[in-house]
Structures are given as C-alpha cells and as structure tokens.
Amino acid sequence: MTHDAAPSPPESTGRRFRAYTTKHLDELTARAGLGEAERLAVRAVATVLPFRVNSYVVDELIDWDAAPDDPIYRLVFPQADMLPSADVSRMADLLRQDAARSEVNRAANEIRARLNPHPAGQMELNVPTSTGKDPLEGMQHKYHETVLFFPKQGQTCHAYCTYCFRWAQFVGEPDLKFASSEVDHLVEYLHRHPEVTSVLLTGGDPMIMGESVLRRYIEPLLGVETLESIRIGTKSLAYWPQRFTTDPDAEGTLRLFEEVVAAGKNLAFMAHFSHPNEMAPDLVRKAVARIRDTGAVIRTQAPLIRTINDDPATWASMWRSHVRHGMVPYYMFVERDTGPQDYFAVPLAEAYEIFRGAFAEVSGLARTVRGPSMSATPGKVCIDGVAEVAGEKVFVCHFIQARDPELVGRPFFARYDEKAVWLSDLEPALGAARFPHERELRGGAAPRIGAAHP
C-alpha cells in the first residue's frame, strides 16, 4: 500500500506541543490509505464524537505502514463503523452538502443523546451538594471515601481515545460537561466530610494544565488533615511524556509532586496505558523514572477494547513492562455503557478469559491488577470467574467498590450469558429474584452520598 505524505511537518519529540484536530482529519486518514468515501465516513463520525491527536502520537507511536490496522491508530482515529450506518450516512450527507454548522450540531446532538453521555448515574446520583443544598459543580462523590474533582482547565487531553467514556466532556456542549475552578468549594466540602480520604483529579486530563495552574488546585488540598491521598488520572505518560521531561514546566511539576509527598500525602499517579506499544519510546521510560523519583506511586489501568488490546498476550506484555519500570498494574476495565460501546465492547465471558490468560502469564508482582471490572451505577463489579454451582453455569462476581458500602467485597452470582457485555445484561442466578445491589432487596434506595452534614 502506498501512503501519502503527512499533512504538514509536525513538531518532533521534545519540541513544542502540536495538536491535530478535525481540520487535519482528511489528510491524516489519507495517509493511512483510506479512500475518499471512507474518509468522509470517518469525518461524519468525528462530527458526533471528538477527535484530537498530537505530533508525538503521530510521529512516535503510530506505525503508518500498518495503518489503519495499527492498534495506536485505532486507539486515536475514529472508525467509519463506530456509529450506526444510518447516523453515519446522515452526518455524511450534511457534510457533503456543506450544511450550516447549526444544522450539523443539531443532528450531532440528537445522536449524542442516544449514546448515554453520562453513564453510572453521574448526573443524577453522584453530584454532591453544598450546605445550601445546591449542587457542587465539577465534583462527584459516588463512593464513601473518594471524591472526584474535574478542574476546569483540565477538561481536554493531549489526544483523545476513540473509546473514551468521558467523550461528552470534549464535544463543546456545556450541558454535557463536568468542570469547576472552585477549589475552595472542594476544600470546604472535604472539611465537612472527614470520611473522604482520597481526592481524584480527573477530566479530561489534569496533566494538560501547566504547573502553575495545577498547583492552584493541589496546594490547598495539602492542608486538609483528613485527606490521605491525591490521585491524578492521566494519559499523559502515553500521549505526551515530554510533560515530565522537556516541557518548560516539567521541573516545576516534579517539584510539586515532591511537595505533595513531603506533606504526608500519598500521590497516586493513575497512568492510563492501553497497549504495550505506548511503552516503546525511551522518552516514556525516562518520564516514568522521573515521576517515581518524586515519591509518587504510578498505578496503571485501561479498559479492554475490541480490535486494540483484546488478547491475553497484549495485556501480559503490558503488565510485565509496567512492573519492569516500577509501575503497579491496577485495573483492567470493561468498556463502559456509553458512546460507541457496541463497537468496542468485549463480552464478559471473553473478557474473563482474556484476563485469566494474561494473569497466568505474569509474576506475582503484576497480579496486583484487578478485573475485568465494570464501573456501573451501583459500583465496580468484578467478574471473578465462571463456575458451575448446583448444576447451573454462573458468573462469580463481587463488588470491588460500591455506592452502598455494605456491598463491598460481597460475592454474588449471575446466570452465565456468553453475549452479555454489561451488568444490565445479566440476570440473577441460583433462583435469586434480585441482585444484592437492587434497591428492593434492601427495602429502599441506598442513601445518597454527599448530602451536606448539618
């Protein structure tokens, strides 16, 4: 296959960050060998779901000779069949007709509304309230001891994953976005809720923020005595390791990490790696070493994604690489019930076999990893195995974390279903009428977490 030249000379590794957006999409997909009709279909998908990549991913991670089948290419570039064909055709027609932006946006928003933009009760159940009972913007409090905070300036990423479950943060619709610049509200909430021992800064990607902005969010947390850990959820190690090596504020960022550790807080750097190829560049390993030297602990996690990492060898290779460089494998997630889930989801039965196969190929140091785990409305549900109990084939499950703390660690059984891809697809087994997390079993709804203390 002959590939066209790159759309324009990108910045090389170690230089200034440069992003490619939808205006570059046609040229980049042509480089991958896609024909005109395929490129139009990809652009149609990108009117609904977000697209952003950068020069490092384009130059250092994608094997263009293998595109469009290269796993990193599939990780960041929309695929023509990610949405129902009728939706793709509708958006392609609008693009072909050069329709007004308002008309394109209206059609895109209709499709987005059908994609469950905020799964697991994020809008209805997870948003805490102030003393005046008003919702606290940019915060979620789903689990007793953990609060999520979405810094306003961190609601984008160095590049977007095609399967991202937070895609709604990036499509420019205010009603779909979580974000706050009010760190004082977070600190006040933590003082009123001493049961919260961990804050997760998430997005988007907090590491898109410069050191001075990141500091404004982190420094106030260091004085909260009841806070034990600060977590940063980020893809930056994979998509822009220069953030910790050659960027102008790399040194200042690492000093900030040291200050968190010196203040007696655990700094958990929650690194998102989806494929072992993301660990190949020397720059990544240098960035990992520099972060670890600050005293931060790097834990790694990613979802299991069809066509990208859906085989045991890929995961075993990735986990071994992480352990070799001092990182701690943490989670294999199941693709969430949002966005193009139908395209990327792996059935739970297959997911368990992939996890088990990879788990069997690594040493005990990598067996810190948990999964396959679903971050569903009642909590994180792990598929522990497939077994036959009392003559019935079942999934053996338990709650790693739960909205109702009484469910944590509690095993339960679901009927085996080789096609099920999510918790809502499962049915109780062994004659049970309901799962333990269903409200009726406890005589009512679990108390809403995050209500203000009197």
Describe this structure in words.
This protein has 454 residues and is of the alpha/beta class. The N terminus is likely disordered. The N and C termini lie far apart (68 Å). The strands form two sheets. An eleven-stranded mixed sheet has the order 3-4-5-6-7-8-9-10-11-12-13. Strands 1-2 form a two-stranded antiparallel sheet. It has 14 helices and 13 strands. Helix 12 links the parallel strand 8 and strand 9. It is globular.
Point out poorly predicted stretches: 1-12, 440-448
C-alpha end-to-end distance: 68 Å
Structural class: alpha/beta
Kindly report the spatial arrangement of strands forming the biggest sheet: 3-4-5-6-7-8-9-10-11-12-13
Element order: H for helix, E for strand: EHHEHHHHEEHEHEHHEHEHEHHEEEE
Helix content: 25-40%
Q: What Rg is obtained from the alpha carbons, in whole angstroms?
A: 22 Å
Keywords: 4Fe-4S, Iron, Iron-sulfur, Metal-binding, Pyridoxal phosphate, S-adenosyl-L-methionine
Protein name: KamA family radical SAM protein
Cofactor: pyridoxal 5'-phosphate
InterPro entries: Aldolase_TIM, Lys_aminomutase/Glu_NH3_mut, rSAM, rSAM_sf
Summarize the structure in short.
This protein is α/β, with parallel strands linked by helices and 454 residues long. It has helices at 25-31, 36-46, 55-61, 71-76, 85-96, 101-113, 183-192, 211-218, 236-239, 250-262, 282-293, 312-324, 341-344, 348-359, and strands spanning 19-20, 53-54, 139-143, 146-149, 198-201, 229-234, 266-272, 297-304, 328-334, 370-376, 379-389, 392-402, 411-415. The strands form two sheets. The chain has an eleven-stranded mixed sheet with strand order 3-4-5-6-7-8-9-10-11-12-13. Strands 1-2 form a two-stranded antiparallel ribbon.
